[in-house]
Amino acid sequence: MKKRIVVLTLCVFMISIFAGAAIAKNDNNFGQQKSKNTNGQRLVDIDDDWAAEDIEEASIKGFLKGYEDGKFWPNKPVTCLETIVILVRAAGLQDEVDDYDLSDEELMILKKIPDWGKAYVAVALNEGILSEDEMKTFNPNQGAKRYQVCIYMQNVLDEFNIDPDDEEFMEDFIDGELVPLQARKSVRNMVRFGVVNGYPDGSFGPMRVVKRNEIARMVNYLDNICIQNSESYILKGILDEVDYEDDILTLNMTDNENEEWEFDIDEEDDVDIYYDGNKLDFDEDLEDIEVGGAIRILLNENEDPVWVKISAPVEEEDYVLLRGILDAVDFDGDVLSLDVIDSEEEEWEFDIDEEDDVDIYYDGQKLDFDEDLEDIEARGTIRILLNENEDPVWIKIYSPE
Length: 401
Hints:
Elements: E1 3-4, H1 27-32, H2 52-61, H3 80-90, H4 94-98, H5 104-109, H6 115-127, H7 132-136, H8 146-159, H9 184-193, H10 212-227, E2 233-245, E3 248-255, E4 260-266, E5 272-275, E6 278-279, E7 294-299, E8 305-310, E9 320-331, E10 335-342, E11 347-353, E12 359-362, E13 365-366, E14 381-386, E15 392-397
Parallel strand pairs: 5-8, 12-15
Antiparallel strand pairs: 1-4, 2-3, 2-7, 3-4, 5-6, 7-8, 9-10, 9-14, 10-11, 12-13, 14-15
Helix pairs in contact: 2-10, 3-6, 3-8, 3-10, 8-9
Protein name: SLH domain-containing protein
InterPro entries: Cell_Envelope_Struct_Comp, SLH_dom
């Protein structure tokens, strides 16, 4: 796959998680996992799961993956040991685990830990993800409770020197008194970061055992918002152009940071493509795709697509990308007036002032509203992202050739 790559700042949405934390897996499978799932394992039992995208993303990142039969078992509980394994991987410490040589003393300390997990726990102890005090009561095969997972995640963040403002307090939960005292800072911070939140009934459920689908979402948010250690992520934006020719699907999109991306995908790339929730056959359905709707692409560590999910444009809800020629431009010091002729030969006029908070770019450079607008020349190409009210969100203008 070829694509034009531009500088990207990942825009992560701080969406609250109403399901919490979770993990699970059998010992052998966890012990055999590798740090990166570059093959993009097909998981056959997650299509209808609420956390399907997070499961796929966590799998691609190598934090956790499915079983040998291709199933993920998203609702299976997860143990304390499996939690530690996942967080060690999320912290980027898999190489340390692979190279770790356990001493006789460590083997004694870790005698209650299954062999496949000993190096993970040793690294977690050395890195502060698991404290010596926590190790005294650590039960590797016990289901991990929500408050425990918050503690372990906070320990990971302490290693990255990440701590919210102390004036930020945990939300009031109807069962807040059930959160153990030693876990309240951790729970508060995870809520503060948006990594985990309460349930719709106002409870936090600190004693509830987490599940695999829940930990997939939590660890993705922990990585995307706080650690930013993985090179895999979900790219989100608007589908600008689509073309299917010579057995190659070309997608042009603008992401949420107003950066432009182009992807060329052929059938051999083995990329799953969905349109309005339906998986498309590569050689039959691709011509049905329309531009203007939302697009999400899961990228692996090489920034190649693993899957593409496109939504059909909905005129009253979706944004529209207007393309054309800048016919005339005027800036009187307060208002920027743009006359545009679009690709359908229709005329548009926009009057924009600084309070409209519209990002304006000229030849790729963002302009200051009160300084640079006089540099804009007419007769070049122009692209304007319009919201549902046909108001500009951003404007990209190019000088005439």
